[in-house]
Amino acid sequence: MNKNRLKKILDNFKGKRVLVLGDIILDEYVFGKVSRLSPEAPVPIVEVESRESIPGGAAYVSSHIANLGGKALLSGVIGRDEHGKILKRKLADKGVELRGIVEAGDRPTILKTRIIAQRQQMVRIDSEKKTHVDAETARSIISFVESEIDGIDSLIISDYGKGVVIPSIFREVIKLARKKKIAVAVDPKPTHCLMYKGVTVITPNTKEASESVHIEIKDEETLLKAGKELLRRVGCESVLITRGEHGMSLFTRGKAPLHIPTFAQEVFDVTGAGDTVISVLALSLAAGANLAEASYLANVAAGVVVGKLGAASVSIEEIKKMLKASTKR
C-alpha cells in the first residue's frame, strides 16, 4: 500500500456524508466495587460508584463517523422515553444528523446495561423489543433515505437483529443505493446473510462468518473455504472477515483473497472494534479508496481501538500514527 495515498484518503474523510441505518442502542455502564456476597443469594454485591451512558449499535457507528470528520446521518428507531432523550442529546453533541430517527410509542429505546466491578464485567442486562418495526415506521425510514440519497457518499447498514433491518426496508434502501452507485457496507447478522445480496461489502467476524455458512474456521484452509462460500451465497461484491489478532481477510469477486495482518501491538479490549472497522471502511470508500485500501485503513484503525479499554473512539491522527509505525516494521 502507498503510504502517501492512504494519508490522502484519510484527509478526504472530512465532510463526507455517510448514512448509517440500523439498530440504535444506548449502552449504559455501571461501575462499582465488590467487597462481599449477598446474604440473600450466592452473588456479589456491587456498590455503585459511577454511571456512564454512550451511544451504541448504529448510534455508536454514527458517532465514529462524526469523530473522524465525516457528516453522519442516522436512521433507525428509539422509544418515546428518557433513554431515547439521552441518546438524542449525546448524538446531537457529536454533530450527528437526527432527522432520520423515528420515535415509536410501541417499543422502548434499546438499553444494554453492563455492571462492572474491579474492571470486570459482572453481568449485562438487555432491555429491548426485537419484533419487526411496523409498516408506518418502515415507510418513514425508507422515505428519509429516499430524501437524502442524492447527497450521501456511502451507506452503512448496522444490523444487530433488533427489528430495523428487515427485508421490506432493506430491499428499498439497497435499490436506491444501487441506482445512485453508492457503496454499501453491512455489519451483518448471520441469520440475515441471504438478505444482503447486492451490497458492496459485508464485515463479519470469524464467528459470524462461520455461522453464516456452517463452516468452522480453524485454519487457513477452512478460512478460504468459508470466505469463498460466503461470497457466493450472499451475492455481494466483497466479504471482509475480521479475525482479531490474525488481522483481516478480504474476499472479492474475481480476485485472489487479500490477507492483512493485525497492526495491534497490544490487545486490551475488542469492544467496538467491529464498529470502528465498518466506520473507517465506509468513510474510505466515500473518500475514493478501493476495497483493498479501505480494508487496510480499517485494519489500522482497529489496531488502535483494541489497544484501549472500553468502547473507545479513534482519531485521524491516531490512525496516521499507527500507519506510520506499521511501515517501520
Please tag this protein with its features.
329 residues; alpha/beta; UDP-N-acetylmuramoyl-L-alanine:D-glutamate ligase; 9-stranded mixed sheet; 4-stranded mixed sheet; 13 strands; 37% helix; globular
Structural summary, described in words:
This protein has 329 residues and is an alpha/beta fold. It has a single domain (3-23, 57-106, 130-326), classed as UDP-N-acetylmuramoyl-L-alanine:D-glutamate ligase, CATH 3.40.1190. The protein is built from 10 helices and 13 strands. The protein has helices spanning 3-11, 58-67, 82-93, 135-148, 167-179, 206-213, 220-234, 273-286, 291-305, 316-326; strands at 17-22, 24-37, 44-57, 71-79, 97-104, 110-117, 120-127, 154-158, 183-187, 201-202, 238-242, 248-252, 258-260. Strands 5-4-1-8-9-10-11-12-13 form a 9-stranded mixed sheet, with helices on both faces. A hairpin with a 5-residue loop joins strand 11 (238-242) and strand 12. Helix 4 packs parallel to helix 5. The longest helix is centred in the last third of the chain and has 15 residues, at 220-234. It is globular and about 65 Å long. The relative contact order is 0.14. The mean pLDDT is 91.
Provide the helix percentage. 25-40%
Identify the CATH homologous superfamily.
Ribokinase
Number of strands: 13
Mean pLDDT across all residues, rounded? 91
**For the largest beta sheet, what order do the strands appear in spatially?**
5-4-1-8-9-10-11-12-13
CATH topology: UDP-N-acetylmuramoyl-L-alanine:D-glutamate ligase
Separation of termini?
14 Å
Main sheet record = 9 strands, mixed
